[in-house]
Amino acid sequence: MMPSIRPLGDSAVIIHWSNADDAEISRSVRQLTHVLNACGTSDFAARFTAVVPAFTSITVHFCLSRMSFQEAARLIEQALSRTEALPAGAPAIIEIPVCFDELFAPDLADVAGRHQLEWDDVIRRFCDAEFSVRMIGFSPGFPYLSGLPTELATPRRSSPRLKVPRGSVAIGGTQAGIYSQETPGGWNVIGRTPLSLFRAELTRPCLLTAGDQVRFVPISVDEFHRWQDEQ
Questions:
Q1: Counts for the chain of helices (H) and strands (E), in that order
Q2: Helices 22-37 & 69-83, crossing angle to 10 degrees?
């Protein structure tokens, strides 16, 4: 399954996969991202200024004064050939504690009512699922998560909120996400995590990265505050 490689503006390349199932594309995006970012095993990381994975594509930025699109594309083809030798490998599984108390879950009742479920059923099904981080975007550290059970898929709110608290765990259509900062937002908020998803002072500022697997673990209000105090 070879992706297409096309210019994106004058100093970026977009690598796009199609005609494959979702899991296979996700694995290919994760593997190529790893090769392109693997400092010490190749010079790709030194040659490109940014590698940005998304759902079915990777955008690679380069300095136009140092290379042309043709040179960038040739390096990407070399990187693709290296992914063939990589073991499939299991992605990292990260547990995210979430408090589903009504204090932190203003839309949980609406989600439950829409699907004719009890609150506990929504929480159980949500926490039983295994999610995959498909991309980071919208705001620094915000993960777009696939894997939401179909019976919990819920349209975005008709009236977005001007402020969604940092750490809010939410459902938007067929996806889940976590608000890494206080921002406006229209997703259905069903809980909140005490974890910080983005810390600019760290070498790796984002807690999650594309390809990670996520499981949500329910915690009480008291546990939520203890987690906050320990960070």
A1: 6, 13
A2: 110
**The amino acid at 107:** D
Q: Where are the alpha helices (DSSP H) in 62-201?
A: 69-83, 108-114, 119-128
Q: What does the pLDDT look like over 202-223, one tens digit per residue?
A: 888 999 988 889 999 999 999 9
Per residue in 7-66, pLDDT tens?
999 999 999 998 878 878 888 898 898 888 875 445 666 788 889 999 899 999 999 888
Longest dimension (CA), the chain: 59
φ, ψ for residue 26 (rounded to 5)? -60, -40
Where does 93-230 sit in CATH, by number? 2.40.100.10
92 Cα distance to chain centroid: 13
Class of domain 4-83: alpha beta
Tokens of 133: 């981080």
